[in-house]
């Protein structure tokens, strides 16, 4: 089981397949294993690398108050992983928190990302939207007074509300419930302290934004952001919420495949 160390954190990652490097970054409350549909699909043609962020999955989970779970700290771990694997640059896909981390890397180390796909994330702190301040308060109240298990079930119900998603909903609730409440709260706080909205014009590499049509950050808001970026475009996935790689894996893979295939054909 491969691990590497960065800034005192023991971080797990997995590698499968051969070819050009393609890295997947997971969302908050999830881990690298939740990219299973993408790993199986893309490892046929790419060297797929999937880390667990510090504090998640099989990576070290520390509640030490000195340990940092900021977006910037995750982006530093990402670059350290590339160095560890001797990868100069890669195609990158980030979902939710992972999309934010990837955007931070794209700003700070643009030569390390060839093309970037961002799923249900935006390059700005959600607190700028009034309804998301309410969401932040709801999350903290649930964690403080009802605990991780109740919060996990509520989050899963919100992400996957349809009857036919019963098994997926149960699996996600179980996954989120295994998280450390302290690490999770620090991650929430880190997201609401993060903002790249003043740097949109500096994000120049090809960027694909993928949005579920029922995501809490609406496609309309994502469109406003994409329109401010020089080389970004938006694709909408229907009948999908915040968990698009899980509730619409085939569509997700198709959109990502088309985006990466353009690069492979030299049609930048």
Can you tag this structure with a few keywords?
268 residues, alpha/beta, Rossmann fold
Mind explaining what this structure looks like?
The structure is a single chain. This protein has a single domain (3-124, 196-264), classed as 3-Layer(aba) Sandwich (Rossmann fold), CATH 3.40.50. 43% of the residues lie in helices and 18% in strands. It contains nine helices and eight strands. An eight-stranded mixed β-sheet has the order 1-2-4-3-5-6-7-8, with helices on both faces. Helix 2 crosses helix 3 (97-108) and helix 4 (130-159) packs across helix 6 (181-192). The longest helix has 30 residues, at 130-159. The protein starts with a strand and ends with a helix.
